Structure formats: structure tokens, C-alpha cells
């Protein structure tokens, strides 16, 4: 990166040029299209001889500011912003793959991404082989002459397992494959996968980036040539982020570092409190020394993230009682929100998997996932304590 400024500074000072009104904070550009000086200006803009916003399905100043910021945070060359995280995932793969191509993916990925790979991509004869994140030695055996992409997430959802990005990146490079990481659980503040060999990084902006549970968004950043393909596909198919949501997100990123620091310190305090609690079988958090991949987490992340997983003793029954007793924390499907959220993956987000499938991705029946928010940690712990009682 050319720029020497620090993460927090870029998050605040990466901003569109001021208009003639000399506004301090970036205004919203709620416009579907843009005008041209004359016929020649319009011709040259359409011919891409000059950079000019044409239509907000292609580009919009608010989206550009958001993309610019995330590129600086991730150390990426370019990016494209989408209406949701899943629009980013789908469009990235659809833009890069041909019929007959093959994906090698971690088994522990976001549920909708898993469904996309197994239920929809086969329609276009695109196949996926899954590997276990605890067995990266087996990845090379899955690679075929048609393999194009290696895909993974770390930390994983909801099991908060950690995958060694550097090891996987080296395998992808050795075989000339495109290495893509969904970095949504870590956020660009905690982990920059491009440093470990990722060609593209995908985020659901809905989670820690917005951080206040308001908007859906997605973004893909990385290698300029790959992004160009994604841009050409997306400007035609129309999954672009709305300028309003882009504006909200760019503002949110100004406080990403501050917020994520607090999410992480709250989460670590909760995890430490739960460790050894008599009503808990186990607790998992990447920055607890007891986490099986603690050393790898330390190597690739700045802190452990906002998600803590634990198992209430007594399995499903006690788990359900715990959920019914929670008062302050929300029962909701989001994560990375300022409000703490608890979910029970086995009966909700991952209920469509068989018990065996769930266990193979680290989800047990009584497992609870907490997305630790920004409330005072004593109130978060007090609610969990009373619910366990
Ligand atoms: C939420 C999420 C997505 C999907 O994002 P949406 O904005 O909900 O479409 C993708 N990957 C991960 C890891 C997520 O947590």
C-alpha cells in the first residue's frame, strides 16, 4: 500500500472530494443516474476512456467511498459493493466460474453459502468438494484439473474454529487457484487475509461493518483483474449496493476499530467467566488459551472477535431452558450488532443439517452462540448468569 496512515485514520479520512458546499461530512448521493457535459463527454464515458459515474447500478460516489475505505483496510487493489453479503458471494463466484468448474471449500461456511454451492451451482454444472478445517493436509487430494477456487472462512460460524490462512493460501498458490476468504467474522480490523495469500476477500457488511443491525450490505475486494471481471458481471446483473446503505456503512467504518476493540474485550471477559463455570460443558473463543488453535488465531488475528460459543450442560433441554430465561440478550439471527445476541444453531440456523453433518462442523445439540455486543460487560454476564440459574 502506498499510504502510510494507520487503519483508524484511513477509516475516518478516506472521503469523497468536497462539493462546492464545503460540507465536512460526506453527503448522500441518492441519484440513479449522472449527467454529461456534452455528446463527446458521454461517448467517452461509455467507452470507459474517462472515469465518470454513469448509472448507480455501475457505480455511485457513496459506494465508491465505501469501497475505497475497505480496500485500504484490507490492502486490496479494488472492489465492488453489493446489496447483501450473499449477493457478494454469489456474484463473485458467478463472475469467475464457467460451467464445469470446481470449487474446493471448507465445510465450515455460512449456511446460505453452503446451500448455494450444494443446491444451486450444480444447475450450472459447478461442483464443490468440502474439506475439514482441521485436516488441511487433505485439501490437495480434492483438487481436480477443473478446480478454480479455494474458499474458506475463519473464524468459522458458529463453531468459532480457526483455520490457518497461510497454509491454505500456500496450497492455492502452488496449484494456481484463486483463493477467496469470507472475512466477515473477523472484520478487516482484526484480520487481513490478503497478507496470507488471499486473492479476494468477501464481507457481509451487515455484521460488524454496520455493527448496529440497520442495513444489509456486502463487498468483495482484492486483485484488480479479478475485481474487473466481478464488476463487469455485476453492473449487468444488478446486485449493487444502494447509495443510502453505502453512506451508512462508510460512516459506520469510522468507528469500526473502536467498536471491535470493545466487542473483543467484552467477548474475552465473557469467555473467561464461562470457562470453568459449573453449568457449562465447554467454552470456545479464539483468544482463550484453551482454544485448540490459539496460536494460529494469535498469528493471524489482532483479537478474538465478537462471537463466543459454549455448551450448556444437559444438552437440548437445558439449552432451551437457558434461551427462555434470557432477558437482556436478544434471540435473533444477526451478529456483530451493538446489542448482544444469543442463538441456538442446532434448532435454528443449522436445523436443516443432520445431526452428523452438524457434528462434523462443530455444532453440538446444546451449543449456544453469543454475539457479544457493546452493553456493559457486567450486565451481559449478569443476564447469562441468571439464565443459567
Ligand atoms: C451473514 C453472513 C453472510 C451473508 O451476508 P448477508 O449480508 O446476510 O447476505 C455471509 N458470510 C458470513 C460469514 C456471514 O456471517
Feature tags:
389 residues, alpha/beta, Aspartate Aminotransferase, domain 2, Aspartate Aminotransferase, domain 1, 2 domains, 12 strands, 39% helix
Small-molecule binders here are: pyridoxal-5'-phosphate
CATH topology of the largest domain: Aspartate Aminotransferase, domain 2
User: Helix-strand pattern, N to C?
Assistant: HHHEHEHEHEHEHEEHHHEHEHEEHEH
CATH class of the largest domain: Alpha Beta
Looking at CATH, the homologous superfamily of the largest domain is Type I PLP-dependent aspartate aminotransferase-like (Major domain)
Overall pLDDT metric: 95
Structural class, by secondary structure, is alpha/beta
**CATH architecture name of the largest domain:** 3-Layer(aba) Sandwich
- State the domain count: 2
- Order of neighbouring strands in the sheet with most strands: 1-7-6-5-4-2-3
The number of E-state strands comes to 12
| Biggest beta-sheet profile | 7 strands, mixed
Which stretches of 5+ consecutive residues score pLDDT under 50?
none
Q: β content, as a range?
A: 5-15%
Distance between the termini: 52 Å
Helix share, percent: 25-40%
Protein name: O-succinylhomoserine sulfhydrylase
Catalytic activity: O-succinyl-L-homoserine + hydrogen sulfide = L-homocysteine + succinate
Pathway: Amino-acid biosynthesis; L-methionine biosynthesis via de novo pathway; L-homocysteine from O-succinyl-L-homoserine: step 1/1
EC number: 2.5.1.-
